[in-house]
Amino acid sequence: MRSFLTSILPALLFLSGFGFVSGLSAQEAPTPTTVREVRVRYDGFPSVSEALIRGNIQVQKGELFDQAAIDRSIRSLYRTGFFEFLAADIDEVGNDEVIVTFRVKPKYRISQVKFEGNDKLSNKRLKKEISISEGDFFDEYNAKSDEDAIYALYLKKGYSNVDVDYDYVSDDTTGLVDVTFLIQEGTKIHVGDVSFTGIGDLSASKLRGVMQLKKWNFWTSWLTGKGRFDPDLLVDDRQTLLAYIRDQGYLDVKIPETGIRISYPEENVVNVAFDVDLGKQYSVGTVAVAGNTLFSKEEILDETDLEPGDVFSPSKVAAATEDIRLFYGSDGYLETYVRAMRTPNLETGAIDLTYQISESQKFDVESINLQGNTKTKSIVIIRELALAPGETFDLRRMRNSQMRLENTRYFDSVNLRPESTNVPGKKDLSISVQEGRTGNLTFGAGFSSLESAVFFAEISQGNFDLFNWRSYFQGDGQKFRVRFQIGSKSNEVVIAFEEPWLFERQLALGFEIFRRQTDYNSSEYNELRTGFEVYLRKRLFELVEGRLSYSLENVDIFDVSEDASSQIKEEEGGKLISKVGGTLTRDTRDRLIITRKGNRVELNSQVAGGILGGDVDYWKNQIWASQFIPTFETLNQGFAMYGRIGTIIPYGDSDVPFFDRFFLGGPNTLRGFGYRDVGPVDDTGEPIGGNSFGYLSFEYMVQLADPLEVVLFYDWGYVNSEDWDFNSSAYNDDWGFGFRVFILGAPLRLDFGFPITSSPTNDDGMQFNFSFGTRF
């Protein structure tokens, strides 16, 4: 019996417990509660309508009471941003009913935004800087943000000791608030001098160059904004200086916060001095390689620039580490890990360097995965790649592929990376792109010393697809452009198209249809050119591009003056010119605007007439060359040389028409002379060009500010009547200075040219040349 009770006791306890719990649940289950009424009670002025409040309340009369719905209602009302305080009161009224009362305190509405103490900056200027305005709901967070914005504006203007605060006065009876920004402007403070102590042989100018805080420059600071004192910049500049000095080998350098001294030699001028404790300058001791089995030490170190005895530079060590990793990666060893181990040598005082290498297996390209090309066809991306499935996965070629894709300008972002697969020794090449805007509709205006005003409209598509109307003619990588231009002395219509990959080969095919009329070449006649050009273009070597073209154009000389010479009158009317041309171009320039490094050489030859037909027969040859040399990093200074030489040889029984001869003078050649004024003239003194010419120009460029460059130049050149005549005895030359102001990416060119040696038919006075073009 005892064992029986023992065995059934747990079951009895379980069943009795179950019955107890069930009975308890049945007794305590609440009766459903109904919402009798939903009320809204304002705490303060009712500046928010009750209709808006009820529109955000998710509890309705007659519904079952739901606390979650109350909470959602509170959150919804808070999200409007109209309330300072919200609460919901639940009152039981019997018969299992409740009354829900939402207590709301609306924010004050801003009646006025005022400024006090602002003598240097107008109310209108300050209102542009803040976010709050009359009629908005007042929010202290926004007011504080606007206070900071005004403070930052004054700092930008050079008022480094400005103080800004805000205050407000509210009226509970109207629900309105007046907000006042209280400003103590102080004085505008300029940086007079930035100096250093304890820097040894380090260049003070280079230290200043890496800093954000700059000395005030009377000539340029008004334009650049640099030179105004901002104490917040000193914190960042201290860290920047420490990093730069460590990179010169002074690894133990110290600039204590107390070592930044500020003095005021004048009321509105501050001098900043940095006390630097350089410590010892370290050099590179021995350089070793460990863990390498695939390549020899010599092969690996040939990829780096650090050698024993060099100044120990942390950035160069990091670069050398990356170079070794890239060296392995270029042969497919993608997961090779390289770590630079530094060991101070107590005997030599140098730092010994060991590149610890953990080599990986070799990987090939398994497949290519594309993501993000919603507009551009996959083939357009793949044909730019220097890697293909089955090849060794080369990191350098992957980076070159990324640069190629970026240079297409089809995408806002391009990212190439190796991606793991389930196949040993294989990785996928993953390509992720974000489509960019490749089409432009541009309206613009310009002016120059040749023409008072020019207006143009242009539509272009850099990722055109001639046969894909469903995607709005986009996605195949073709180029298309239509341009209309009208000016006071010229007009132009151009339609151009280019297929950069003809038959999926790296061979471009393009054409251009044009109509160009110019009235500024001469006061004796006007000129109209109408025709087309077809060309093939191909990159022959890494930096060399070849171009082969055929063009057919009709040149019409009209409105010839009665006083014009016989040479000009003979060309009146239209002439058909049929010619082929070939061009070789080598370009290593670092950039197209504000160029400082590299060169460009172009050779061009054209043959007109003969078996090609047309009304003229000649052979035209030209060479262009330019070289850019950086000189000083300060103010981004540089030197440039430009040269051109050419000759045009008639054959058969025709002469070269004057409109295809060579001319010099004007804003793009000899800037000290009038447009096309240098060279042979007719009996009336009108320029008629020559069959041979030579031209040289030298420029020294100083970038005073991001948008401003100053140029000092010298131009030299000659134009001779006969072909192959490069006698320079009749040269003209000039010198001058100019300015380049870059506005919205377009340069405003202002040049003052002064003749030195001038032909008798040329004016001796100063020439002012200017040109400008931009978008709006």
UniProtKB/TrEMBL annotation:
<feature type="domain" description="POTRA">
    <location>
        <begin position="363"/>
        <end position="436"/>
    </location>
</feature>
<keyword id="KW-1134">Transmembrane beta strand</keyword>
<keyword id="KW-0812">Transmembrane</keyword>
<keyword id="KW-0472">Membrane</keyword>
<keyword id="KW-0732">Signal</keyword>
<feature type="domain" description="POTRA">
    <location>
        <begin position="108"/>
        <end position="186"/>
    </location>
</feature>
<protein>
    <recommendedName>
        <fullName>Outer membrane protein assembly factor BamA</fullName>
    </recommendedName>
</protein>
<dbReference type="Pfam" id="PF07244">
    <property type="entry name" value="POTRA"/>
</dbReference>
<dbReference type="GO" id="GO:0009279">
    <property type="term" value="C:cell outer membrane"/>
</dbReference>
<dbReference type="InterPro" id="IPR010827">
    <property type="entry name" value="BamA/TamA_POTRA"/>
</dbReference>
<dbReference type="GO" id="GO:0071709">
    <property type="term" value="P:membrane assembly"/>
</dbReference>
<dbReference type="InterPro" id="IPR034746">
    <property type="entry name" value="POTRA"/>
</dbReference>
<feature type="domain" description="POTRA">
    <location>
        <begin position="282"/>
        <end position="360"/>
    </location>
</feature>
<dbReference type="Pfam" id="PF01103">
    <property type="entry name" value="Omp85"/>
</dbReference>
<keyword id="KW-0998">Cell outer membrane</keyword>
<keyword id="KW-0677">Repeat</keyword>
<dbReference type="InterPro" id="IPR000184">
    <property type="entry name" value="Bac_surfAg_D15"/>
</dbReference>
<dbReference type="InterPro" id="IPR023707">
    <property type="entry name" value="OM_assembly_BamA"/>
</dbReference>
<feature type="signal peptide">
    <location>
        <begin position="1"/>
        <end position="26"/>
    </location>
</feature>
<dbReference type="InterPro" id="IPR039910">
    <property type="entry name" value="D15-like"/>
</dbReference>
